[in-house]
Design a protein that fits this description.
By secondary structure, the protein is of the alpha/beta class. 28% of the residues lie in helices and 24% in strands. Helix 5 (151-161) packs across helix 6.
Length: 347
């Protein structure tokens, strides 16, 4: 089969590799019908995730058709249409039982495209198939369901829920890329007073408006701190969400939060950021970090299926499954291409 293979920082190739086989009795082999590229994949290619080694097939999101299953799989059968979650859950360890499968102790967590071969391929081996896949509802496009593999649960859990967004809050979101937009979409469910989207690209700020931000700030031309102060009688945001993953954006989020406020970090950081405790210690600030656990996927799936969340708004570019090199180029140059999420499908 063909797959997108990582060969060290800056190096990848669409090449022939062996087709995966069932190894454990809880595995499923899934034919990939729709797949996407994540910002985390770009971090891997930058060398920010050293656990990913030469020869790894990238990708951790897919919708596909089950081809075969191990003898221990009980709820998934050959021929089923499934969403493959970015988080694999053993389902029995302490963290899985507490709803924190991202920290799975039983061999799961974020492993696809990280510690084992991933989904940017014609076929993928999915461990713990019963607890790591979701049935695709009839009548909902594959590409809409695909947005539930990672981006929507990540923005919702790590940004909105970790940040404790409440009705009437002022929420400042630093970064209007796909995960920032997912946080905007999730925050809207809680009726905040204002959602302030901050980015350096006008095209992404226009997207933020479509996703529900009512205030946008291009921080190459405006001071986000001043905008937020004016909206909050000088106090600062109730919730500041960091959705980029570089030191400057985390430090900006920290400056935006009011006394007693919450800072929720979503971004994948590849280098240290300065935590200004000399300023924050007296402000009763709560800071959260997190890897998505995907405990919200079933809820979000119901909202997408019922039309209460429009996941199709994320998708800006579509490609065939054999066009990974082009898709990566478009996705990585989002400032030029206005790409949000790209989808690759079998043709």
């Amino acid at each position: 089969m063909r797959a997108l293979v990582y060969h060290g920082p800056g190096q990848k190739a669409w090449e022939d590799v062996p087709k995966p086989e069932v190894i454990a009795d809880t595995d499923a082999i899934v034919r990939v019908d729709a797949v996407t590229i994540c910002g985390t994949d770009l971090h891997i290619l930058k060398g920010d995730v050293p656990a990913v080694t030469d020869g790894r097939i990238l990708g951790h999101e897919a919708v596909g058709t089950v081809e075969s299953v191990g003898t221990g799989v009980k709820t998934v059968s050959a021929g089923d249409r499934v969403l493959v979650s970015c988080i694999s859950a053993c389902g029995t360890c302490r963290f899985c039982r507490e709803g924190h499968a991202g920290q799975c102790l039983g061999g799961g967590g974020w492993i696809l495209g990280h510690k084992i071969d991933g989904t940017q391929a014609e076929y993928v081996r999915v461990p713990f198939a019963d607890t790591s896949t979701y049935p695709v509802p009839p009548g909902v496009p594959d590409e809409n369901i695909l947005m539930l593999a990672d981006i929507l649960p990540t923005g919702y859990e790590v940004g909105v829920l970790n940040g404790g967004v409440r009705p009437g809050d002022v929420v400042a979101i630093v970064g209007s890329g796909p995960v920032g937009l997912a946080a905007i979409m999730g925050a809207r469910l809680y009726s905040p007073h204002h959602i302030v989207a901050i980015d350096m690209a006008d095209a992404r700020l226009e997207a933020a408006k479509r996703f529900g931000a009512d205030v946008t700030v291009n921080n190459t031309r405006q001071d986000p701190e001043e905008v937020v102060r004016l909206l909050t009688d000088g106090l600062g945001a109730d919730v500041a969400i960091e959705a980029v993953g570089v030191p400057a954006t985390f430090e900006l989020a920290a400056r935006l939060a009011r006394p007693g406020g919450r800072i929720a970090n979503i971004g994948v950081h590849g280098e240290p950021a300065t935590l200004h405790l000399e300023e924050l210690w007296i402000k009763n600030i709560t800071i959260t970090t997190g890897l998505v656990d995907a405990y919200s996927t079933a809820t979000l799936l119901r909202l997408v299926t019922s039309g209460q969340l429009d996941a199709s708004k994320f998708i800006t570019h579509r490609f065939g499954l054999n066009e990974f090199e082009l898709a990566y180029d478009v996705f990585s140059r989002a400032a030029d291409t206005s790409a949000l999420k790209v989808v690759l499908t079998r043709v």
